[in-house]
Amino acid sequence: MKRTLPLALYGAATGLLAPFAPAMLRGRARRGKEDLDRLGERLGRPGVPRPPGPLVWLHGVSVGETTSLLPLVAALRARRPGLILLVTSGTVTAARLLTARLPKGVIHQFAPVDTPSAARRFLDHWQPALAVFVESEIWPNLILAAKARGTRLALLSARMTEASATRWARWPASARALIGAIDLILPQDTATEARIRRLGGVPGPGLNLKLVGEPLPADDAELGRMRAAIAGRKVVLAASTHPGEERPIAEAVRRAAPDALLVIVPRHPDRGADLARELGAARRSAGEAPDGPVYLADTLGELGLFFRLAEVVVMGGAFVPGIGGHNPLEPARIGRPILTGPHAFNAADAYADLFAHAAAIEAADMAALERHVRGLLAYPAIARRMGEAALAYAHRQGAALDEALARLEPLLPA
Question: Coil, helix or strand for 310?
Fold first, then answer.
């Protein structure tokens, strides 16, 4: 495929920067943002041999995107057991989660940086017949190099913000070339669909993989131990929180229910030590007991445990601007009432449906959050009905996975 001038310049610029990539990655590793022992994978150097046979590559950058791939991975394993499945991610946290939750035999690697040399090494080794990207992962060098080799390309749960669409509109021919290289685009919401069409793409029907999946797992023995430690206290869970949210949420919950236990699960567990000092909270990662007003669950892969313990779930990422909120289907699959903030634009369609079915409530500010927490704890029958409505909504989303598989089928290797 002939590159437009902006795409050619991008390829040249990233090629010139490629010699500096190792030092950049080592610096990120010192800050805990890369796995020092696996930096070669980020440069396109494989960490394991490639098994013989047709290979499908699936990629999600961080925890939310990679988690949304798990039902698709499981379905492909069941329907096409002869396929080799490679799943890549871009963050250390996502890699740890995938290591724990990928089925046996599925390969995990870190995704390569988008330089021509890293893309070439990665594709030379893995030779994918189909590449499936999730959400907003459009890397020009990787996509165009894969297309040139005959790899089929799919973008599922596609998400494009208005700011991204405006940027791409400055280079319309380049946008059309990249979008046109992708064989299948399934947008996750109507706004993204309109933006892709505006840039010359032809998206298929809507699909949001984050709405699909099984409930997050929990260890039954640990659930029993935690219930004993909590000793009958009511539990409010603040899940996937970000800087600027924890203290206001803690103060709102304290005012609403002074005797309740607030469990905070930060989106990035490495913030645990700082948050514990700021909030005077006990830390799960340090083996401390939940005997104060705030318990900091700064561990990985335990959200399923704390969703089951909670009477009320407050979804983070939506009480400060710019993040967009997190997946409400995770608490919905466990039948919990959901509170969110005013900035949940990443899951706007899902939240609109949940609001319409009285399964979730938007708290416009911390005073509203305090009021809703107090009401749901005081009237457990209302909280239970909200949770039942959320669970029923989650069950109705299963058809989305069948739709994704049907659309992918023509792209899969024979």
Answer: coil
CA distance 307 to 313: 7
Per-residue pLDDT, 95: 94
Contact 132, 154 (CB under 8 A): yes
**Torsion over CA: 365, 370, 375, 376 (sign):** positive
Q: Could you tell me where the DSSP H helices lie in 231-361?
A: 246-256, 272-279, 303-309, 329-332, 348-356
- Give rounded-to-5 percent helix, strand, coil for the chain: 50, 15, 35
Residue 400 has pLDDT above 90, yes or no: no
Say if CB 227 and CB 310 are below 8 A apart: no
Nearest residue to 313 via CA among 333, 286, 284, 285: 333
Strands ordered across the beta sheet of 261-266: 282-283, 294-296, 261-266, 235-241, 312-315, 338-340, 360-362
| The pLDDT value given to residue 206 | 84
365-390 burial: b if 16+ Cβ within 10 Å, else e? ebebbbbbbbebbeeeeebeebbebb
Catalytically active residues are 65
> For residue 369, what are the CA distances in angstroms to 227, 237, 240, 261, 266?
25, 13, 16, 16, 18
Q: Kindly report the pTM of this predicted structure.
A: 0.80
Neighbour tally for 227: CB within 10 Å: 13
In the structure encoding, which two tokens stand for residue 10, read together? 């991008």
The mean pLDDT of the chain is 95
Q: What is the DSSP string of 110-158?
A: EPPPSSHHHHHHHHHHH--SEEEEETT---HHHHHHHHHTT-EEEEEEE
254 by Cβ neighbours in 10 Å (0-12 / 13-18 / 19+) ranks as middle
Provide, rounded to the nearest whole percent, the portion of the chain with pLDDT above 70.
100
Position 1 scores a pLDDT of 64
Which of 222-231, 279-288, 398-407 shows the lowest mean pLDDT across its residues? Answer: 398-407
